[in-house]
Amino acid sequence: MASKAGDNPDSLMALSTAFCLRNLRKTMCYLGDRNKLCLRSDVFLPSEICDKLVNTYMELVHTDSNFKPQDGFFQLFSDPRSTRLTRIQLREDIVQDRDLEAIGKQDLIELHLTSCHNLSARSLRTLTSFRQTLVSLSLFGCSRIFYRKGGAPLAFDEEEEEEEEERPASRQALDTDFSFQGFNRLRLLNLGGLPEEVDVEGLLKPLPALTSLDLSGVQLPRAAFLAQWKERLASLVLYNVDLSEELINTVVDVHKELKHPIRALLFFFLFPSVSVLPRHLDISREHTSKFKMTRKTLTAIVQGLVNLVSLDISGHIMLDNCTVPHFEEAMGRPSIEPCKSSIYPFQELKRPLQFLGLYNTTLCNVTHIPAYKVTGSKNEDQVLNAIEAYTEFRPELAHRAINQLFDIARIQHCSQLLRALQLVIAALKCHKYDKSIQVTGSAALFYLTNTEYRSDQSVRLRRQVIQVVLNGMEQYQEVTVQRNCCLTLCNFSIPEELEFQYGRVNLLLLKILEPARQDESIQRIAVHLCNALVCQVDNHHKEAVGKMGFVKTMLNLIQKKLQDRMCDQVMEFSWSALWNITDETPDNCQMFLNCRGMSLFLDCLKEFPDKQELHRNMLGLLGNVAEVRALRPQLLTPQFISVFSNLLDSKADGIEVSYNACGVLSHIMFDGPEVWAMEEPLRETVMDKMMAAIQSWDVTSRRNINYRSFEPILRLLPQSIAPVSQHWATWALFNLVSVYPSKYCPLLIKEGGIILLEKVLELQTSHEETKEMARKVMEQCENFKEDPMETTR
C-alpha cells in the first residue's frame, strides 16, 4: 500500500525526548528543597541528548497548549559534569536572563536567540561565558539585550528580576560595556534588528575572522567598515538595509584585490580552508527604497562575486530593462543554463546559482532563470520556495507568499501538497503570535485540507494541521482567524479525527460562543462543530463536555435567538446539539432542566409553530430527558402533558415529531397510573390518542434518527403497566429492522431484544396488534441471520 503524504513516523529519539520532557519527575528529575526541580544524581547526558531536550522543550512550549513551562528547567543543565550543551535554539518571551545564566558554564558552540524580548544586558554578560567556544551566534530580534533594565547595574538578585521586568522601557539604558573581544572562534553572527543606538562598527571590530554576517534591518554607519572581512566573508545578509552605490561597490570591490594573481596565490597559501569571495549575498527588501537596482549594478555583482552560489534581490525595482526581448525569451523550453538566461547580467554566471531570490520583482516572471531554486510569485514552486526561505526571519514576506499559496489552492490546484502543508504548518508554529501569518495560514489550510486533497493526506499530517489550527484559535479571538480555523476544522471527519484533542477543541468552541453578540457566521460554524462533536461519541465524552458548560452555552444561544425572534441554523443546531449531548447522559439532562430548558422549549414552540426541524430536535431532546426515571416527574405537569399530547397529531418532518412526542409519553406512562396526579388531561385519554397516532404511522417510513442502543426502548417491552408504551416500543423496533435491517437487526440481537419480544407474546395484557408486530420483528431478524445481504438503499 502506498504511503500517504506526511506519513513518516517520529524517530525513537524524538518520541523518547518528548516523553521525558512531559514526565520529568518520573524520568530524570526529582523535587528538591523549596520544590526546586533537580536532576537525579545518577543521570549523565551527552550533548546530543541535552541539545535535543532543550530544543524540543522550546518547541513544545510554543506549540503544545497542554505542555507548561517548567520553573528551573534550564537549571538542570547548569553542571557540565552531568549535562553537556553545545547547540541550542531559544526563542521568544519565555526565555529570561536567569535561563542563560543557568547554563553559563556550558561550552556552547552554537547559540541562536530569536525574538527573546525579555533578555537584557545581563544576558550580554552571560554571553562572555561562551566566548572561548562559541562559533555561531544569533541575536535576531533581541534588541532589548543591549539595554540594562531600568538603568540598573548588571548584577542583581534573582528575586528582583520579575520586578525589574515590570519597569517601563523608557528607563532602560543602553549598555556600552559589552564587547566581542575574546570571541576568537566566532565565525557566524546574526545581529538582525540591532537597535540604531548601538555602534555596530565598534561592536564588530573585534571579530575580523567572521565568515557569515547578517545585518538585516541595521543602520550601517559607513560602507567601508565591511572591508575588514574582505578576505573571509562567505555570506553577507543586508536585508532591509538602506543600500547605496558606495555600499554595493564596497561589497564587490573589496574582493577585487584577490583577482591579482600574486595576492590570490598568497591568500590561498595563508588561508587554504577559506572560501574566497562571498558565496551568499542578500540585499533584498520588504518595501521599495530610494536605491534602484540597475543592469550595471547587477552585472557588477555577478562579475565581481565569481564564487556566488546564492543571491537575493527580492523587493527591488529594476531601473532599466535587463531582460531579453519577449520573442527571444519564448524560444525553447525553460532552461537554467546561464548562457540562455532571460536576465542579461546572469548570462555572466559561470554556473547556475543554487538559490536566487526574485520575490516581489518582475524578474521572477521570465522564462529562463539560471538557478535551481527561485523565489517569486510566478508559479507554485516559486511561492513555496519563498515560504521556505523567508518564514523564520521574514514573516512579512512569508505572509505574502502564503497568501499567494492560498490563491493557488483555491483557484488552481496545489501539486506539491505535502510540501505546501508542511511549510504552512511550520510558519504557523514559528509565528504563533503573528496575526497576519495566522490569518493567511489558517485560510490556506482550509483549502489544502478540503475534499480534493484529503485522500492524499496521512493521519499524522492531518493531526498536525488540527494542532496548529487550535493554537491559532487559542491565541486569537479575532473574527477572521476564528472563522478560518473553524472552517478548516469542518474539513475533518468529526468527531473521529478530532477525538485526540476532544476536550481542547470543545473548550475553544464554547469560548467562541460565550459572547452574547458574536459574529453570525462564526457562531453558525461553531455551533455546527459543537453538534458534530457530541454526536456518536462515548458517554464519558458527553459528560465531560457537559461539565464544561456546553448545555448552558447552547441554551444561552437559544435565549438570544428567541429575543431576536429568529429561528435560523444556530437555533436549530443548538437544539440538535442538546439532543445529542443528553443522549444516555442523565447529568446533562438534569442540567437542561436546571437551566430553564423546558421554559425555552415552550417559548420556541409558541414563537415558531411551523418550524418542523426545530420541533423534531426539541422533541428528540425531551425523549432523552424522559428516559431518565428520576427526571420524569418534572415533565408530569398538565401544561407539558397537554403539549406532548397535541404534538401527537403533528405531521412535521414526516412522523418524527409525532414519534418523539409519543416516545416521551410512553416513558411517562411506564411509571404507572399512581404518579398521574393531574385531573386534566386524563391518562386514558392521552393513551388513546397515543394509540391512534401510532396506528397512523407508515411502518416503512425512512427515519431521521440514529440509535446507538435499544436499551431505552427494550425496557418498555416486558411490562403490563402501560400496553400503549409497549406498543410504541414494538412499532419502533419493527420500523427500524424493516427499513435498516443490516444496522439494527444485529443490534437488537446483541442486546437481547429477541428474548424480550418473546415475553411480549406471552403477556396477556399485550395487544394482538403488538404481538403481531413482535412476531414480524423476530422473523425479520431470523431472516437477516440467514441472509445478511441488505438490498435496500
TrEMBL record:
One of its GO terms (cellular component) is Cul2-RING ubiquitin ligase complex. Residues 203-259, 279-361 form the Zer-1-like leucine-rich repeats region domain. The keyword Transferase does not apply. Signal peptide: none annotated. The keyword Repeat applies. Residues 428-783 form the Protein zer-1 homolog-like C-terminal domain. Belongs to the zyg-11 family. This is Protein zer-1 homolog. It comes from Esox lucius (Northern pike). The lineage of its organism: Eukaryota, Metazoa, Chordata, Craniata, Vertebrata. The gene is ZER1.
